Amino acid sequence: MTGGFLDGDIFRGLAFRILVFLSLALLPFGLIAVVQTREIARQAEANAELSLLGLTELASGAERSFIQEAFGAGEALSSIVRLFGQQQEACVSFLRTYRDSSEIYSVVGFIPTDGIMTCSSEGGSYDFSAYTDFEAVLATQERAVILSRTGPISRDPVLAMLQPVTVRGEFVGFMLLSVPVTSIGDRPDPPSDMIPSDLVTFNALGDVLTSDRPRLITQADLPLNRSLKTLIGERTAVFQEVNTKGEERVYALVPIVPDVVYSMSIWRREDVLASAGSTGNLSIFLPILMWLASLVVAFWAINRLAIRYIRKLGRQMRLFAYNRSMPRTAMGPEVTREFVEIQTAFMSMADSIIRDEASLEDSLREKNILLKEVHHRVKNNLQLISSIMNMQIRRAPTEESQRVLRRLQERILSLATVHKNLYQNDGLERVNAGELVEEIVGQLLVVGLPPGSSVKVTQSYDPVQLDTDDAAPLTLLVSEAVTNAMKYIGDATATNPATLDILLKQRDAETAVFTISNTVGDAPAAEGTGLGTQLINAFSTQLNAEVVTEEKGGMHQLTLTFPVPHRVKLVQDY
């Protein structure tokens, strides 16, 4: 499945580059998907906040009803207080009658600015001037709701609603309506399964008025970094904050009476933000998942429809290049037309190459056969000439004539030996100079040294590979050098045995050295014609060789250093 992608340099592979371009093509769609999903997430979060606010408002319905009704009643009763003025008994009677008829309030009364209440449903006189909360509310001269855990009159927990009273625009005091906390009653069940962990109401002073749980538990669940007093003035709000225990909570704030009383529900974060959080995560992971799925499908399609067939064609081509093996079967019908055409073209090309190579091999074989036949016939002709010369030698009238003819015969036989080695050798470009020199020297020693000769001959030949163009000059040079050495070799004595040393060594990769050494006798050598030396110099020039001759310690030595390049010499086509 992953062939062609994880093998070798993946960054240069076809699959990787296609996937990169596909990613670039999908990028705008991915960005659009991210934006749309984030918008959906924001909308879901906004809906969740609205839902929390609605549930909070619904849950605080009882408190809202009592508090708003109390402020409405207080505003209505303010005119009654202004009407009765200093008529205390009439005021007390009216307020008592109103309290009894409402069945909601435990105390209804008017508190003037000095804090001494004389007009109330309870009658008598009550002093509120020493209460801290009253002083704070008196300073604001605004509506207020105060929690009294032990009411000064009823001694029960009450919510004291204070409605400002003005006479001709001048603030004169507060209308007091006390509602027992126990009379607020149970709130209705919410229409959903979402129930807050707590619901609290608090006043402008930041004091908790009511809560669903005990006071200490409620205090522990309030925001750590926000006091309730700082929330006064908000319209509606939903925010996340840690409570005093360091736990994540979500708070929904709804005003019951703006700037006076607020209701706040407390939720566990996992209960209300699970869906919104998952939507937010989807806004990131869903486009990534879609991108990965697209890449997987694209890679699977590329691998199945293209890469595996490209690799198959590559294997077929490499196998053909290695051993000229043709594909056994054509690609099946499931392969796309383009790859079938490529394989058909490759098989046609491979068949043409095989045919051309076969034709070239036939031509080369014919050429080799013809060349070997040429060398064979040249060798036969040279041997025929040698035989004729042998007959001529036997008929020569003088010894000098025989010697000259024999030397010429030796040179002809050397050339014949070269051609013999060429047609017996598998290759026609190179010849083993070691074998060639060894055979020529052997022929010369058989003729030049009679049986029982006391000359000690030492031979050593390395398998030096030589161009065929250099074979003839080398063999003729060796023939002249060996003949001269045998001609001038001295007679053996007890202290100076006659020796002949012939060596052919490969000195380095492209240089060979031929050395021939022979002992020199005490008697002066006969004068020669100098032809052998001239021929040696001429042949060494053809070989681009260096010839050095020296004589020391009773030995005469000829050293030939010649090049043997690795590259075959170019043959000019005439």
UniProtKB/TrEMBL annotation:
One of its GO terms (molecular function) is ATP binding. Its EC number is 2.7.13.3. The chain crosses the membrane at residues 14-35, 288-307. It comes from the Bacteria. Residues 373-450 form the Signal transduction histidine kinase HWE region domain. InterPro entries: HATPase_C_sf, Sig_transdc_His_kin_sub2_dim/P, Sig_transdc_His_kinase_HWE. Pfam families: HisKA_2 (PF07568). Keywords: ATP-binding, Kinase, Membrane, Nucleotide-binding, Phosphoprotein, Transferase, Transmembrane, Transmembrane helix. It catalyses: ATP + protein L-histidine = ADP + protein N-phospho-L-histidine. This is histidine kinase.
